[in-house]
């Protein structure tokens, strides 16, 4: 439980879904964590839960796609904990599923801001501090960035950007001692993949699970375990990697999930107390309203 002892991490999108699991996993492993999220996210609740479990964490509420807020997030980490070792670019939205001819332009613009600009802005602002600590960046890709995703082609495009961005940044930043990698989840048990909470309908929900060789969604904690490895010194020779933690969906064809062994269909219980997995950004988010939209 000390794989990140003495490390300082910022986790964007850190209050819900996979982000909550990353924050709690990192704190459990000894990291001091900045839980970063939008004002409507349960940031303070996650921080309090980490503190109650014996970890160290502080809250940051703001829009990390904004240059000033991104810089403020980095400064808060350094002022509170003295340095920055790890940046997790997990912020993002998944607001709708429609064929492209029907896709709302505002949804597209918002997705570019939250999925692409946030990772660019946080990486840009964090790198001077990461140079000092020979730190690392781990960003959230997706199997959709590899395969594309019908009925939400712009989402797959944003994740394709993150894949290429991470690989290029890994080469560029090696001269400064900074590693850069990308975690590429499949369907995970969060609000995004449940018809009751997000844009999936029952047909898409069933199709995604059937297309996964392991025959189930992944858990947020399973994703946090991959982030933990890539952020730790155990991954000292890993940079520029796309880690597909997707239950095998990127290598499968057809409805293979029905054939999965029962042991694969059963999700592990995990160790973390996750209370916000089914919350998350399944809607358009303009923190400053029209003013922020005009700044794109």
From TrEMBL:
For this protein, the record's InterPro entries field holds: NAD(P)-bd_dom_sf, Sc_DH/Rdtase_CS, SDR_DHRS6-like, SDR_fam
Q: Does the keyword section mention DNA repair? A: no
- Show the segment(s) annotated as Disordered: 277-296
Please provide the record's keywords in A-Z order: Oxidoreductase
Q: Does the keyword Oxidoreductase apply?
A: yes
Q: What is its EC number?
A: 1.1.1.47
Give the top-rank taxon of the lineage listed in the UniProt record for this protein: Bacteria
SUPFAM superfamilies under this entry?
NAD(P)-binding Rossmann-fold domains
Q: Name one GO molecular function term.
A: glucose 1-dehydrogenase [NAD(P)+] activity
Return the similarity comment.
Answer: Belongs to the short-chain dehydrogenases/reductases (SDR) family.
Q: Which NCBIfam families match?
A: PRK07231.1
Protein name stated in the entry: Glucose 1-dehydrogenase
Organism the protein comes from: Cesiribacter andamanensis AMV16
Taxonomic lineage from the root: Bacteria, Pseudomonadati, Bacteroidota, Cytophagia, Cytophagales
């Amino acid at each position: 439980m000390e794989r990140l002892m003495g490390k300082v991490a910022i986790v964007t999108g850190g209050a819900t879904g996979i982000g909550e699991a990353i924050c709690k996993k990192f704190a459990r492993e000894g990291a001091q964590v900045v839980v970063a999220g939008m004002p409507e996210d349960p940031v303070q609740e996650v921080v309090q839960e980490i503190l109650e479990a014996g970890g160290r964490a502080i809250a940051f509420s703001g829009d990390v796609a904004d240059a000033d807020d991104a810089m403020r997030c980095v400064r808060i980490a350094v002022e509170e904990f003295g340095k920055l070792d790890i940046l997790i670019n997990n912020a993002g939205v998944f607001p709708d599923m429609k064929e492209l001819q029907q896709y709302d332009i505002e949804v597209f613009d918002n997705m570019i801001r939250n999925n692409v600009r946030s990772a660019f802005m946080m990486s840009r602002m964090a790198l001077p501090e990461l140079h000092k600590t020979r730190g690392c960046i781990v960003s959230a890709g997706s199997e959709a960035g590899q395969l594309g995703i019908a009925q939400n082609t712009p989402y797959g495009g944003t994740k394709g950007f993150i894949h290429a961005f991470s690989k290029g940044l890994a080469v560029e930043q090696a001269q400064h001692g900074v590693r850069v990698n990308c975690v590429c989840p499949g369907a995970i048990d969060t609000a995004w993949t449940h018809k009751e909470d997000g844009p999936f309908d029952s047909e898409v929900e069933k199709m995604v699970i059937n297309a996964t060789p392991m025959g189930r969604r992944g858990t947020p904690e399973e994703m946090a375990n991959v982030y933990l490895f890539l952020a730790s010194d155990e991954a000292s020779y890993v940079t520029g990697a796309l880690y597909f933690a997707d239950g095998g969906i990127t290598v499968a064809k057809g409805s293979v999930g029905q054939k999965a062994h029962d042991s694969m269909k059963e999700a592990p219980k995990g160790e973390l107390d996750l209370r916000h997995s089914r919350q998350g950004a399944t809607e358009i988010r303009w923190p400053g309203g029209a003013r922020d939209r005009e700044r794109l």
